Amino acid sequence: MNNVIMEVNDEIALVTINRPKSLNALNSETLAELDQCFDEISTRKDIKVLILTGSGQKAFVAGADISEMVNATPAEGRQMGMLAKQAFLKLETMPQVTIAAVNGYALGGGCEISMACDIRIASDNARFGQPETGLGILPGFGGTQRLARLIGKGRAKELIFTCDQIEAQEAYRIGLANKVVPQDELIDTCKKMAAKIISKGSYAISLAKEAINTGMDTDLSSGLTLEADLFGLSFSTHDKTEGMTAFLEKRKADLTDF
């Protein structure tokens, strides 16, 4: 891969978008590489958490690559949007927990790919925004859909219509970021959270993720039925027996299912 680096240690995959000269802007090649990377991770049992970040100190991802889009035809624009849809849905729905380590600019496609992650941890210099309407287009990598689901329709419309950038603390206040930390502590904080998540029941977490993701897009009754179904499924696992037995025996559980 030319634009994406993946390192795996201690059941954590650290995926870095590596185009620092263009502030890690997402072009078609990078989207295709991310799609391939997410495909691989989703099938690997030795990876429990994915941490996604961008190289350098200035940007997580500054957006889609405008130099590629400026002369694109309508068909090519849609093709790029569909490529992002495919890659970001894989990121959103993979059984592993995904954490966006957002340092610096997360604009346009950067904000959009961070929203496809389960959790967003921002450095204190992070800035989020959807500037597309200022370029005569609209968000095309999920911004009109995921942003409203995360922060509400009114706030999402304001950010998309005004192209305003918001700082990390404001992103935290409105629920776009889960946590804000000093820049030099960002990756360590993400790894500590990943280790905590890995210590829990990974298969149970994957079922909970499915219940939350699917339930958000359905009515309450259907979501509750799905939850009951997945709750019942978890009773078939080694981890359920081990976890409950360990609790009653007042010892640490050895949770191994995934």
UniProtKB/TrEMBL annotation:
Pathway assigned to this chain's UniProt record: Lipid metabolism; butanoate metabolism
Gene Ontology MF: a single term: 3-hydroxyacyl-CoA dehydratase activity
Listed InterPro entries: ClpP/crotonase-like_dom_sf, Enoyl-CoA_hyd/isom_CS, Enoyl-CoA_hydra/iso, Enoyl-CoA_hydra_C
Key words, A-Z: Lyase
Enzyme Commission number, as recorded: 4.2.1.150
Catalytic activity field: a short-chain (3S)-3-hydroxyacyl-CoA = a short-chain (2E)-enoyl-CoA + H2O
Coiled coil: none
GO term, biological process aspect, one: fatty acid beta-oxidation
Gene3D superfamilies on file: 2-enoyl-CoA Hydratase, Chain A, domain 1 (3.90.226.10), Lyase 2-enoyl-coa Hydratase, Chain A, domain 2 (1.10.12.10)
Top-level lineage group: Bacteria
PROSITE patterns: ENOYL_COA_HYDRATASE
Self-association state and partner proteins as the record states: Homotetramer.
Family from the record: Belongs to the enoyl-CoA hydratase/isomerase family.
Protein name: short-chain-enoyl-CoA hydratase
